[in-house]
Amino acid sequence: MPLRTIRNPHDAVHHPVFAQVWAKVSPVLDERAGMGEHRKELLAGLSGRVIEIGAGNGLNFAHYPGTVSEVVAIEPERRLRRMAVEAAVRAGVPVDVVPGAAEALPVKSEAFDAAVVSLVLCSVRDVRRSLGELRRVLKPGGELRFFEHGVAPGRVLADVQRGLDRTVWPLLFGGCHTARDPLAALSGAGFELGAYRRLLMPRTRVPMPSATCVLGVARRPAEPTGH
């Protein structure tokens, strides 16, 4: 399997405390809160070359189907990237873990059949630019699979989310914002929304500002047919 990791003293993202916490919490959420099943649903049916943005500690890798020929996994945070490299070794498909920022992907244009974002649009610095990069690297008609949390439908909770985003939440949770609207962002970046569904995650006893999620598929529009 092609596998490499690059050490870069000028990583685009550096959240070592959050990385340590996420490494401990995320496997528990997969096992007890149903996130593992959502990862399987997110990736089912993919094939060809896939780029995953914000791969974190690589929990998606085990769920890629055998029809995927290669995954290029971009992760900007150094500690999480090291964990992703370890997860890539155990994956059933070839996974290449590389550093990079979503706003400037270190790959060629129109090089991928599909792209994956999983709980990452909440924390990128520039959502529109990041989605523009995903459009660039996808082939015309290519799929973008997404599993993201965002703004709640109710006004009260949405106001709470916006207040948290202006104060402590991004500082405590690795740059995460709870009140972004992933569906609006995808449409605004020129993607065609396909099937999606809303869900509450994780299934915990205490309501979380990041519990409102959406899982689905969008597409880069195919090039217009010439006459």
Automatic annotation (TrEMBL):
Record keywords: Methyltransferase, Transferase
Gene Ontology biological-process entries: methylation
Methyltransferase type domain ranges (all copies): 52-145
GO molecular function: methyltransferase activity
SUPFAM superfamilies (alphabetical): S-adenosyl-L-methionine-dependent methyltransferases (SSF53335)
E.C. code: 2.1.1.-
Name of the protein in its database record: Class I SAM-dependent methyltransferase
Species of origin: Streptomyces ehimensis
